[in-house]
Amino acid sequence: MTSRELLLMAIPACVALAGGVLAALWHPSHRARSLIQHFAAGVVLAALAVELLPEIEREHAPGWVLGGSFALGSLFMFGLKIGTQKLNAGGAKTKGASVPKGLLLATFIDVAVDGFIIGAGFAAGGETGAVLAIGLSVELLFLGLALASEATRGWRIIAISGAIGGTVLVAAVIGKVVLAGASHAVIGGALSFAAAALLYLVTEELLMEAHEGDEPETPFSTLVLFAGFLAFWTVQLVGRGR
Fold it and tell me: Is residue 118 part of a domain?
């Protein structure tokens, strides 16, 4: 593992901590949160469409491996969703709990998967790891705001965000080490699993949460989603010198 790769892996961790600091100082309205979520969804969709899916094709893994890994990733995220709902339902009956334990557990599992995805991207070679690290950083920046609105505030959210950042970094290093030198089938399967996880992140977390609440959504929110996609795509095109 090179120092450049480690530095890039540290970007999401630092962004996660920065998100906690931001959450401790700023409490956005539902409207502002919704726009942030739409922008983040656009960025993650761009990472999926512009970098991850083409990289999966370049691995030339067997179709049954890719399809099976995508299905496994979908079932894993579905199981995580069901488990989170049950934990939160049980935690709601516990008085005096400042932080919903189900939400925190799901969050740490989610960011660990994100970190492993980043590590898999670096194992695949090229710029996949760097692109995924930057793309998922947008999600992690928002995560502090989401946890602050749901659970706690002040120094506690900074501590939680720091722990989240550390989890992402460790998981990314593990992903890189475990998959280093792996076959094309293994790399392709890992990236296909990652694609399912990212698709879940967009459809079942970012956009679903953005549409919650009493305030009606406006067409401007959709425009912000496309702006997020375009911003990420533009950065990649400029980086390739086009």
Answer: yes
Residue 241 placed within a domain:
no
**Domain for residue 147, yes or no?**
yes
Q: What is the DSSP string of 37-86?
A: HHHHHHHHHHIIIIIIHHHHHHHT--HHHHHHHHHHHHHHHHHHHHHHHH
Rg (CA), the chain: 18
Domain count, the chain: 1
Segment 56-104, tens digit of pLDDT: 888 888 999 999 999 999 998 888 888 777 766 665 554 444 555 666 7
CA dihedral for 49, 209, 166, 196, sign (positive or negative): negative
Instruction: Please report whether residue 51 resides in a domain.
Output: yes
Given the structure tokens 């999600």, which residue do they identify?
Answer: 139
Tokens of 89: 């339902």
**Of 6, 5, 24, 1, the residue nearest 162 (C-alpha):** 24
